[in-house]
Amino acid sequence: MGRMRFKTWPVLIAAFSLMLLLMAFSAISNWRQSGLLFDKWEGLTRVYQDSERSLQQIRSDVQVSGLLVRDYLLDPTDAASDSYKKRLLENRSDMAKQLARLEGTISESQAGKLQLLGNQLQAYWDSLEPIFGWTPKQRQTQSSPFLRESVIPRREAALGLAVEIERLNEANFRSRQGEINEGRAQFRKFFLNTTVLLIAIALAVAFIVVFRISHLEKNARVHQERTEHAERELRDLSLKLVRAQEEERRAISRELHDEVGQMLTGLRMELANVGRFHSAPEDQFEAKIKECGVLLEQTLQAVRDLAMGLRPSMLDDIGLGAALEWQAREFARRYDIPVNVLLEAPLEQLTETQKTSIYRVVQEALTNCARHAHAHSIGIRLKQAGEALELAVADDGIGMQPEGRGKGLGLIGIQERIRDLGGVFSILSLPQQQGTTLAVTIPFRETS
């Protein structure tokens, strides 16, 4: 099985998706956090300002009420009594409103102080109730000790509580401001962490991209070198094919000229002599006829051998097994090297392409043995192994050099034939060792 190829695009898509998700999450979180911090700060500032305004208004109302009481007590007539009373009641109502506002803005820690301030103000206003029933003479005689002993102490106590509440309000504001600052620090830390994480992921993606591009460029260079090498090999193969074609034509021409041509020339001469022996004794005439027959038989055999070399017709006539055995016998007769053939496969179920390819592979292997192996014996074995055919041609010769494998035109032809059948071709041999084995494995496909 081929090696699993690593695909980069799923990793890059996942990394970019993670980056986009983190960026979206960071943006949404930062927007929400900044909004919350702004709302908290705005709310705190508004509450603090409202509290300050209410306290200032209470202090102002206390001061104004004191001035109104003083002016009323110093007035020698009763003409403005109702006016002073009305203005004091309005002042008291405004104080009550401001106290109600403070209840909604101060913290729980200030509730006791606010309650005490309300009690002091109530006592302050209660102390002012008797003066509206005094006569001008009573106001003249009792106003000074009344103001000094009753009104002013209560007023000062209320003002002191208001100042203390203001201080507590400011302290609470600063405390809440510290909480907001702590939230801002956490927000900055979160923003920094998300930014660092995004930068780390971006650097990782960039590293993967650069590494992958570098790897692809390296593979591209390797493939380019292989392509150039394959192109050179194709050019060499084309030259070898042209030379092989010329050699084959030369061999056929030589065979036709040297053997078939000479035999036909001799046959023509013998036939010409037959005419002269027509009146000769019968035994001489028959001898000449027999010589012509022998010469004609040799010519036919030469033509058959030549045709067999071009296309083994016996594959179509008697089958692959008989053709391989005939080829082995002819090889043994010609080169005096015994060849053992062992067939263990259902050859009749092979396709025509498989039969022809197996025959040519064995033919080329035997030719290489005769030329290079210096073998004393050769074994051919064809068997079925599961859903495959296994062919092995083994000799006991001198072996092959590693650099010599696969460079001959014959071996290249074998390799191309086996590759076309979807098979595997290999040579098992070591230099200076006994023998070489040419092994072929092809898928077994039955004819329909």
Quick take:
This protein is α+β, with helices and mostly antiparallel strands and 448 residues long. Helix content is 74%, strand content 8%. The protein folds into 2 domains: 9-209, Four Helix Bundle (Hemerythrin (Met), subunit A) (Up-down Bundle), CATH 1.20.120.1730; 315-443, Heat Shock Protein 90 (2-Layer Sandwich).
Give a verbal description of the structure:
By secondary structure, the chain is an alpha+beta fold. The protein folds into two domains: 9-209, Four Helix Bundle (Hemerythrin (Met), subunit A); 315-443, Histidine kinase-like ATPase, C-terminal domain (Heat Shock Protein 90), CATH 3.30.565. Helices cover 74% and strands 8% of the residues. It has nine helices and five strands; from the N terminus they run αααααααβαββαββ. Strand 4 and strand 5 form a beta hairpin. Helix 2 (81-105) runs antiparallel to helix 3 (111-128) and helix 8 runs antiparallel to helix 9. It is rod-shaped, with a radius of gyration of 60 Å.
**What is the fold named in CATH at topology level of the largest domain?**
Four Helix Bundle (Hemerythrin (Met), subunit A)
**Which spans have pLDDT < 50 for at least 5 consecutive residues?**
none
- β content, as a range? 5-15%
Secondary-structure arrangement, i.e. CATH architecture of the largest domain: Up-down Bundle
Q: Give the spatial strand order of the biggest sheet.
A: 1-2-3-5-4
Residues in helix, %: over 70%
End-to-end Cα distance: 28 Å
Instruction: Report the radius of gyration as a whole number of Å.
Output: 60 Å
What overall geometry do the principal axes of the alpha carbons give?
A: rod-shaped
Q: Please give the domain count.
A: 2
Structure annotation, total helices: 9
- Largest beta-sheet details: 5 strands, mixed
Residue-averaged pLDDT = 76
Instruction: Supply the helix-strand structural class.
Output: alpha+beta
- What is the number of strand segments? 5
The arrangement of helices and strands along the chain is HHHHHHHEHEEHEE
